[in-house]
Amino acid sequence: MVEGRNVRIGVYVCHCGGNISDVVNVKRVVEEISKEKDVVVAVDYPFMCSEAGQKLIEDDIRSGRINAVVVASCSPRLHEATFRAAIARAGGNPYMYYHVDIREECSWVHEDDKGGATEKAIREVRMAVAYLRHAEPLNKIKVESEKSALIIGGGIAGLRAAVDLAEMGVNVYLVEKSPFLGGNAAKLGRLKVFPYEKSIIDIVRELISKLRSMSNVAIYTNAEVENVSGYVGNFEVTIRVNPRYFKGRCGKSDIANLCPRKTEDEFYFGVGERTAIIMPPFEGAYPDIPTIDMNLCDRCGLCTKYCPEIDLKQQPQTIRLRVGAIIIATGFKPYVPKKGEYGYGLPSVITLPELIGVINRFGKVKIGDREPRNIVMIYCVGSRQKRDGEGKVNEYCSRYCCIAAIDTAVLIHSIMPNTKIYHLVRDVRSYGINELLFEEAQRLGQVFIKFSEDSPPQVLQNDDETIVKVRDILTENAEIEIPADLVVLITGMEPSDGTVNIAEKLKISRGMDGFLQEIHPKLRPVEIMLGGVFITGTAQAPRGLMETLASASASAAKFASLVLKGYTELEPFVAFVDINECNASGLCVTECPYNAVELRDYPGLGKRAWVNEALCKGCGACVAVCPSGAIQLKGLRNAQIEDMIRSAMGGKHE
Fold first, then answer.
1. pLDDT tens-digit profile of 452-499?
2. Which of 510, 506, 519 is nearest to 539 (CA)?
3. Euclidean distance between CA atoms 253 and 509, whole angstroms
4. FRET partner for 173 with CA separation of 20 to 30 A, picked from 11, 202, 355, 461?
């Protein structure tokens, strides 16, 4: 207990409707705990989380009987916030509280040993009482916040989040590394958002149009985030904006065709060529002026003779911003099959993105000068793969591939109705309303053949003919040979290079699949451990368009709840330093994973450790390495830990 304070503890043991009391003898727990020093109230109740249960606590606080609370019940993940709120409503300090889990930790795991479960519950509640003897009232940390947002990534998730925030009155800075907004979604072109007639590119255009009409949005294309420092509510960001080498629109519409330098056109997934002069790739693109790819350009100067708007002397710009929070929407990249994987590398074998590029570029499917009569689509290439000792594989489902493939196949039928399409699938994951699209493909006469993951299709080249062999599970593994004019590999998603880079710069955890890792997929689905930074879209996980848009709006809503007030409140469980004990070893500075500790000069004392409470996450790494014991955690002081251990071991309290 902090010197001079009189702690009066109330202990409330929950039956949880029999989940606890059928195993743990709650009456005996109350009886034993009531004997503990500083415990003035000890009761059991059927449902502590009910209004009546919470009222027990509130009445005891209002009457002045207690000023600290222990609730022994279910998991703190479920109701710790519930009981803290009840304490606050009654005028108490919500941090003079300890939540003991005697359901998951006692009754559920020891249902075959009721006596042992009861003894364990008593020990755990005693430890909580010991904790509160040394507790002190804490208050949330209030941090002033900038009412502005940085969104990294100008694909459809970044665009959706930017529009949502701008409509709330937030100043939005949107940074996109490529020359134009739209990301992968813009490349999908004519694919429909089933069951609507609107295409994906139409949605991209609408979002871009909205952003361009808003005065509180600044858009930086050809730009990358170089550095981020600061903390939630007050981030300082450095952006490098690369030159476009165009001062404005060029009067010569075919200026790109004059350029002799050529490479694959990434907007069409490598189908066809573009020159070093990149024109706006679709109607409604932003910016609507060209750019020059200096990685390809050899500065021959030919273009400058025809277009006075070209300025090859332009230099990169550095822009510094202050923002309250950051949303990462850096997207994905398509999986690229290894050479020979399902025949990849043969002229008649392409990926789904390449097929979409062909359709968007030429308006139909072509193989050289021919239109294919038979198209075979092989699913789950680069997703749901078994490890076979040949290096990296992707075991996850990419969630969008099945629907994108079927959507493309239905589009092909509308353009080329006489083309026969075969779908070779492990499963068709057409969840929700997309099941209707699956049924539409079947209604059109498209054939779905189910194969086993242990017996994948084989793509064989016989002279000028491509043959696909597959064993059909639905016909008792009968081997089927399909002559294919075109084989399409339905490839999945991988984390984009931008996602990998930003994770390294901001020290963001990535999951086993390589995508950015949220704190909890259900409870905190768009938050990461770095406060004030949110993740969205396919930077976070493989997903379809509708899920991507929903997660973008979720990120924007989380941003708004955090900083729109002009300040944000943080939990008070942070490190603090006794400067009279600190010997400035600096170990805490080097050990802190969040850069929250630094050495500062104190008059008359010299250098001492100082904790930035807005950055500190209360992990305790600094406490463990401090040689003088000068640094501790609020809400988990050394005395609290020591007395809890003594209680667990049956010793006397200090």
1. 988 999 999 988 899 999 999 988 889 999 999 999 999 999 999 999
2. 510
3. 46
4. 202
